[in-house]
């Protein structure tokens, strides 16, 4: 086949998809200059959207809130009551602002991955999930030390509810699990799910469009029928991805609350 869909030299007329000269082109915005790239710009945009949502929802107190205000308020109540207080328990309300900011920021950032003309989930850059996970890590470690003192680390190294003979082994496992595995798994879980979902979506929709554009060279059956099937399957994945994006924001926030709870209420 003379027509090459993916080529090193890009011909926008005959080749709908092209391999960029450098992978860094995927993260550049032509309208931006200097060190600010696409990922950084969308991170700032996600943060601004979160602040705008909360500002416009709560700037005026009314007996009967607007539909927009009621929608935002339901999200705030969900995070505060079901996650912060529901998971952490007594004292959980003081962690509600952090958990709410975390949830909304990840949610908005996730939905950028399926937003037309953006199509860039900010959590698909591993640096962001790592920073968010380390922030949660610092909070639950400090909360544990503040609540229990140095006994927090002592209980990890020498678990009091474990038989003495097993305490050295269980202590090492617990220490590594709490201080190493938790932040690592928290970051990788979000990163991997966002990359996998976005990649699958891009491949299905991109392949569908590429097949349909190549109809003159490969025929109506291969190009049209196969292209439409790929595109329809991509749109089905698109709808499923909306649920996945919400669940990933919820899971990250929920696990953050669980880790904080385990630090300040070790008996539980």
Keywords:
268 residues; mainly alpha; disordered N terminus
Fraction of residues in β-strands: under 5%
What is the strand tally? 0
Rg over alpha carbons: 24 Å
- How far is the first residue's CA from the last residue's CA? 65 Å
Describe the structure.
The chain has a domain at 57-146 and 180-264. The protein is built from eight helices and no strands. It has helices spanning 38-58, 67-88, 96-111, 127-148, 151-157, 167-213, 215-218, 220-264. Helix 1 (38-58) packs across helix 2 and helix 2 (67-88) crosses helix 3. The model is unreliable at 1-8 (pLDDT under 50).
Question: What is the structure about, briefly put?
Answer:
The protein has helices at residues 38-58, 67-88, 96-111, 127-148, 151-157, 167-213, 215-218, 220-264.
């Amino acid at each position: 086949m003379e027509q090459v869909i993916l080529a090193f030299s890009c011909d926008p007329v005959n080749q709908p998809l092209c391999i960029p000269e450098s992978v860094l082109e995927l993260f550049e915005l032509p309208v931006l200059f200097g060190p600010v790239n696409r990922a950084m710009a969308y991170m700032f945009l996600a943060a601004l959207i979160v602040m705008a949502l909360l500002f416009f929802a709560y700037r005026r107190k009314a007996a009967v809130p607007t539909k927009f205000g009621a929608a935002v308020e339901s999200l705030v109540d969900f995070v505060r009551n079901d996650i912060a207080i529901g998971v952490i328990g007594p004292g959980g309300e003081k962690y509600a602002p952090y958990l709410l900011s975390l949830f909304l920021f990840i949610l908005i950032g996730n939905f950028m991955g399926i937003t037309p003309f953006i199509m860039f989930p900010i959590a698909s850059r591993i640096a962001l999930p790592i920073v968010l996970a380390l922030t949660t890590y610092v909070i639950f470690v400090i909360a544990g030390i503040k609540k229990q003192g140095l006994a927090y680390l002592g209980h990890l190294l020498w678990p009091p509810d474990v038989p003495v003979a097993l305490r050295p082994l269980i202590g090492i496992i617990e220490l590594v699990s709490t201080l190493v595995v938790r932040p690592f798994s928290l970051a990788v879980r979000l990163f991997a799910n966002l990359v996998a979902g976005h990649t699958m979506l891009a491949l299905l929709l991109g392949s569908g469009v590429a097949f349909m554009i190549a109809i003159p060279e490969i025929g109506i059956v291969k190009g049209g029928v196969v292209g439409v099937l790929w595109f329809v399957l991509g749109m089905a994945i698109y709808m499923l991805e909306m649920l996945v994006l919400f669940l990933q924001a919820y899971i990250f926030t929920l696990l953050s609350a669980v880790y904080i709870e385990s630090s300040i209420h070790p008996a539980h």
